[in-house]
């Protein structure tokens, strides 16, 4: 008999730095899940990643107060900011000066890492999707 799923919780937590404070504690507490068990398991699962990398996680809560979770790849914006070597995107994309630049080859590298979490079938379509995200952040995409 399969366990009954009572809900999904989606959070974005820095890799290796989960703790019971908000947003983790309240989100799990209202479903009656063991917060410290999740914190320990999440930090163990993300210890090989660069500490502090924003990591989306989908937690499946079951009726017997157990849970399972799946970590996703960091958001596109995280990779684009890192590739362009900038701290944050433009406040007025498309209007003011662009804040950084990324090459098509950098986008292809990001696409290879992100592919399993993107709704694309080819690397080319993933690169186009990433280029759109870059433009929305005020980052210029150059050949190379």
From TrEMBL:
Signal peptide stretch: none
GO molecular function terms attached to this record: large ribosomal subunit rRNA binding; structural constituent of ribosome
GO cellular component terms listed in the entry, alphabetical order: cytosolic large ribosomal subunit
Pfam families for this protein: Ribosomal_L11 (PF00298), Ribosomal_L11_N (PF03946)
Transmembrane segments: none
Domain Large ribosomal subunit protein uL11 N-terminal: 9-67
GO biological process: translation
Gene3D superfamilies: Ribosomal protein L11, C-terminal domain, Ribosomal protein L11/L12, N-terminal domain
Sequence ranges assigned to domain Large ribosomal subunit protein uL11 C-terminal in this UniProt record: 72-141
InterPro entries, per the entry: Ribosomal_uL11 (IPR000911), Ribosomal_uL11_bac-typ (IPR006519), Ribosomal_uL11_C (IPR020783), Ribosomal_uL11_C_sf (IPR036769), Ribosomal_uL11_N (IPR020784), Ribosomal_uL11_N_sf (IPR036796)
UniProt keyword terms in alphabetical order: Methylation, Ribonucleoprotein, Ribosomal protein, RNA-binding, rRNA-binding
Highest taxon listed in the record's lineage: Bacteria
PTM comment: One or more lysine residues are methylated.
NCBIfam families: L11_bact
Function (record text): Forms part of the ribosomal stalk which helps the ribosome interact with GTP-bound translation factors.
PANTHER family tied to this protein: 60S RIBOSOMAL PROTEIN L12 (PTHR11661), LARGE RIBOSOMAL SUBUNIT PROTEIN UL11M (PTHR11661:SF1)
Similarity comment text for this entry: Belongs to the universal ribosomal protein uL11 family.
Record text on subunit structure and interactions: Part of the ribosomal stalk of the 50S ribosomal subunit. Interacts with L10 and the large rRNA to form the base of the stalk. L10 forms an elongated spine to which L12 dimers bind in a sequential fashion forming a multimeric L10(L12)X complex.
Name listed for the protein in its UniProt record: Large ribosomal subunit protein uL11
Organism: Rhodovarius crocodyli
């Amino acid at each position: 008999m399969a366990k009954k799923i009572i809900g999904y919780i989606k959070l974005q937590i820095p890799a290796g730095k989960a703790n019971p404070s908000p947003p983790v504690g309240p989100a799990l507490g209202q479903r009656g899940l063991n917060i410290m068990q999740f914190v320990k398991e999440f930090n163990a699962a993300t210890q090989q990643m660069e500490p502090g990398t924003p990591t989306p996680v989908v937690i499946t809560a079951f009726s017997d107060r157990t849970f399972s979770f799946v970590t996703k790849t960091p958001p596109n914006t995280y990779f684009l900011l890192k590739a362009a070597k900038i701290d944050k995107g433009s406040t007025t994309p498309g209007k003011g000066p662009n804040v950084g630049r990324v090459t098509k080859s950098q986008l292809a590298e990001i696409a290879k890492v992100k592919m399993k979490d993107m709704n694309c079938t080819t690397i080319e379509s993933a690169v186009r999707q990433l280029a759109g995200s870059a433009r929305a952040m005020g980052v210029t995409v150059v050949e190379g």
